[in-house]
Design brief:
With 332 residues, the protein is α+β, with helices and mostly antiparallel strands. The protein has ten helices and 14 strands. The strands form three sheets. It has a six-stranded mixed β-barrel. A four-stranded mixed sheet has the order 4-7-8-9, covered by helices on one side. Strands 5-6 form a two-stranded antiparallel ribbon. It starts with 6 loop residues before the first strand and ends with a strand.
């Protein structure tokens, strides 16, 4: 079975490494969320999934075997190994109005964003007085750390402890709402190319350490990435769920991945074979393709959603592992 950027080779369930060891029940809620917006080819399987009520792993695995067929994902050239990275949802402190150190704005969507392609670069948005004045009415919140703001831009969504003008603080989400259509450039790669970090060192802890030691060069570092993200404010009714991914359903920590949609359609269950970050411990898990990203390109390519908090950030920042993938596709 061939897709735009991948080919799928029919496989047996016995070919999935560690299939009998993972909790498929733990991935079931993520799959049901995807079935609220079934992809083409999934209408019947999703109807059967929504009607099912598996009580244990035996019933759960039996359901998968009855209704779905595994396919090994390869590149168009037959390459079976790719790359898995990680991402997370940052948690930032912010103020509704500029005050004290909270002076770095996060913007809503410009009304002419769709008509002006590409939009202003990051350097123009942050450094050009005329552009800054034009975008000032769109400022949603203000943070106190430019690098943390960039982390939010790169991750695409984040939780914000918002200090309101009346002094109250509430937890909300700033969700991805668009970008300036400028190319994304990795600041880690920029520091490597400049000889500031060695290859393999460009994780977020090392980048933050470099920023602390080089405050006068922060603008240079930030403007190396012309991509700029705009947000929309969302309530956080269920703090146990992540932001909505590109499929339009909430992400589940440890069970959602971002993929290249030209390789794997949204809503597809995927069996991953990789290892834990900086470890030889196997990471063999059932996940669901529910998101994408500008850097997630290729047949055997995934970005693993770790969730939120310090541990999720640490795991995501360290993750860059070899990967093999199998999709589970309806037999019908």
């Amino acid at each position: 079975m061939q897709r735009e950027r991948s080919r799928w080779v029919q496989a047996n369930w016995t070919e999935l490494p560690g299939w009998s060891e993972d909790s498929t029940l733990a991935a079931w809620p993520a799959m049901l969320r995807s079935c609220s917006k079934p992809a083409p080819g999934w209408a019947q399987a999703c109807a059967q999934a929504l009607a099912a009520n598996p009580h244990d792993e035996i019933e759960m695995r039996a359901w998968f075997r009855e209704h779905l067929q595994p396919w090994r994902v390869e590149s168009l050239e037959g390459q079976t190994e790719g790359l898995v990275t990680g991402y997370f949802e940052p948690l930032l402190q912010a103020a509704r109005k500029p005050q004290g150190a909270f002076r770095i704005p996060l913007h809503g969507v410009p009304p002419d964003l769709a008509q002006r392609k590409p939009f202003y670069t990051r350097a123009q948005i942050e450094g050009d007085a005329e552009v800054k004045a034009r975008l000032r009415p769109l400022e949603l919140a203000y943070v106190d750390d430019a690098l943390e703001a960039l982390v939010l831009h790169i991750q695409g969504s984040g939780r914000v402890q918002m200090r309101e003008p009346d002094g109250q603080t509430r937890l909300l989400r700033l969700a991805f709402a668009g970008h300036n259509d400028q190319p994304y450039q990795s600041i880690g790669r920029y520091l490597i190319d400049k000889g500031e970090l060695r290859p393999g060192e460009a994780s977020w802890p090392q980048i933050r350490d470099w920023a602390r030691r080089n405050p006068a060069r922060m603008t240079e570092l930030l403007w190396a990435n012309p991509r700029y993200v705009f947000f929309r404010e969302e309530a956080l009714p269920d703090p146990e769920l992540g932001p909505k991914g590109a499929q339009g359903v909430p992400l589940t920590p440890g069970r959602s991945i971002a993929v290249d949609k030209a390789s794997i359609p949204y809503g597809t269950p995927v069996w991953l074979e990789a290892t834990e970050p900086l470890s030889s411990t196997p990471l063999r898990r059932l996940v669901v393709a529910q998101d994408t990203g500008s850097a997630i390109v290729g047949a055997v390519r995934a970005d693993f959603f770790w969730g939120w908090g310090a541990e999720a950030e640490a795991q995501a920042g360290r993750m860059k592992q070899p990967l093999k993938m199998w999709v589970l596709w309806p037999r019908s």
